[in-house]
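Lecture notes, part 5. Sequence design as translation. It can be helpful to think of inverse folding as translation between two languages: the language of shapes and the language of residues. The source text, in structure tokens, appears below.
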């Protein structure tokens, strides 16, 4: 099963693609979709959708996992990230895939076994679980890989 993990954002959206083979994970791709700050907000959302479509066309994921928003004291940031997340979910659905959401707590539990793990712990576990020589950068990409790993641990197909 090929899984695309997404850490939504308007400036930077982390993406990570893994393949689950039995109980093992194989890294296929990670990176970030970066939108230009000098563009209008609608143009940034459009670029996010366009780049996400390209990633989906390249890797043909069987599943897409998107991080849920957590409570943010900065309402403006929460609203813009929420709108980016909405565009992500719509784009994924338009390409015939259902998106599944996971909270940061669920991701940390799945990757580290502890829901209050620090960001560095999550990054370290992503590196180890994917047998990488370095921690993936930027942080958003490492987070996206953690979300994909979370889905690989959480998803149970029918009949199992």
């Amino acid at each position: 099963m090929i899984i695309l993990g997404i850490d939504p954002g308007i400036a930077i959206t982390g993406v990570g693609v893994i393949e689950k083979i039995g109980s093992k994970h194989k890294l296929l791709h990670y990176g970030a979709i970066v939108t230009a700050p000098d563009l209008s907000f609608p143009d940034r959302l459009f670029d996010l959708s366009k780049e996400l479509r390209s990633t989906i066309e390249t890797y043909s994921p069987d599943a897409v996992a998107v991080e849920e928003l957590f409570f943010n004291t900065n309402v403006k940031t929460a609203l813009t990230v929420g709108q980016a997340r909405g565009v992500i979910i719509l784009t994924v659905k338009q390409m015939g895939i259902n998106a599944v959401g996971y909270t940061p707590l669920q991701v940390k539990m799945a990757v580290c076994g502890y829901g209050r793990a620090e960001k560095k712990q999550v990054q370290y576990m992503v590196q180890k679980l994917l047998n990488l020589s370095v921690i993936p950068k930027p942080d958003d990409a490492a987070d996206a890989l953690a979300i994909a790993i979370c889905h690989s641990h959480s998803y149970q197909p029918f009949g199992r």
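The translated text above is only one of many valid answers, since several sequences can fold into similar shapes. Residues 72 and 78 are 6 Å apart (CA to CA).
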